[in-house]
Amino acid sequence: IFRAVAFPAHSRLLEMMEYVAANPKLCAAAVLAAGSAAALRWLAVAPLPKSGAEERAEMAREWWVKYLKITPHFDQLIKDLRIQHMGSDGTARGSITAAGPLLSATGTLHEGGLFELIDTFGSLAVMAAGHPAGVSLEMGASILSQVHAGEELNIESRILRIGSTVGFTAVEVSRAGGKRVASATHTKHIGQPPLERIRQNLLARCVPVARWLSQRALRRMEAGMAQLPRLSSGTMEEALALQLLPSGHESGAHSYAVEHLHLLNGYWAGHGASSAGLLAAAARELLRSNGVENACFQDISILYMNPVPAWKPVGLFVAPLASEEKPGALSIAVEMRNESKVFVRGRFTALLG
C-alpha cells in the first residue's frame, strides 16, 4: 500500500512488467522490439565495416563515371574526366584535358574550371572512404601557374581529417610532366540524419544490394534527365553569363547572374564551382575597369554560407582591398547576395606586375 501511494509510477511499471511476463507472446514481442531498437541504435553510430571497403570505393568510382556522362548540371563540364583510382583510404586520382568550357576566352583554365576539379576530387576522396559527399563549406586554392588549352592535367586528392559532420580534403593539380599547377583545400559537410546513416550501414554490409540500388538510381536519373538541355557554350564566360550593371546602380551591386540549370549542383542549387567562377569573373571585370587586363589570381578563398537559389537573379558586390602582405598585389572581396542574405563570399589576390 505504501509503495502504491508513495511511488505510483513505480507501481504501474511493476504491474506492466508482471503482465508482460504472464503473456509469452507479448513478452517475445517486447524482447524483439528492444533488440531491434538496440540494433538500429548501433547501426546509427557504428563505423562502416572494413571488409568490402575497396569494393565500395570502386562502386563509387563507377557511379561517378556514369553520373558525369548524364548530368545536365555544372559537372557536365568534366564529362570526359578519367577517374583512374578511388581508394578506401580516402584517396582519388584522375586526369583530364583542359578544353571546352573549362577554359576562359583567352584560352587558359578559368577559375570556375579549376574549382570544378577541386570540388569534384574533394568529393571523390570523401566518397571513396565511405562518407556522403554533402555540400561544400569552404574551398581555397593557391595557383602557381596558368594552364593553356590542350594541356593534360593530373588531379590527386586525399582526406586530411574526417569528423562526425565535416570532412577536410587536400587537392593537387599538376601537369602531365609533374609540375604543380595549384594546391587546394576543400571542406565538405558529411553529416547524415540517423535513418540515412542506418541505411548506409546496412548497404555497406550487403554490397550486391547496394550496387543494384545504385544502378537502378542511375537508370532513373538518366531517364529523368534525358530531355533536359545540355550546355552548348564554348567558353566559361559564356556559360556563366555574368551581367554587368551600370556604375552607381541603385542596388549597389557590381553585376548580377542567374544560376540556370547548367550552373546547378545535384541538390538543384547553385554549384559551388560555378559560384566561385562567377565571383572570379566579377573580380576580373573590376580589374579590367581599372585598366588591368589578363590579371592572374594567385590566392583564392571561397566561403559558402547559404545555398544559392536556382533561376533567381543574385547580385555580386565587389570591393578592392589593400594588400599589405604582397607588394604589387591587390586583394578583392566579392559577395554573392540578395536583399536578405549572403550566399557566397570570396577573396581573390591578383598579381598586378
TrEMBL record:
Molecular function terms, GO-annotated: fatty acyl-CoA hydrolase activity
Listed PANTHER family: ACYL-COENZYME A THIOESTERASE 13 (PTHR21660:SF1), THIOESTERASE SUPERFAMILY MEMBER-RELATED (PTHR21660)
The entry's keywords: Hydrolase
Family: Belongs to the thioesterase PaaI family.
Stored SUPFAM superfamilies: Thioesterase/thiol ester dehydrase-isomerase (SSF54637)
Protein name: Thioesterase domain-containing protein
Domain Thioesterase positions: 107-181
Organism in which the protein naturally occurs: Pyrodinium bahamense
One Pfam short name: 4HBT
InterPro entries found in the cross-reference section: ACOT13, HotDog_dom_sf, Thioestr_dom
Top-level taxon of origin: Eukaryota
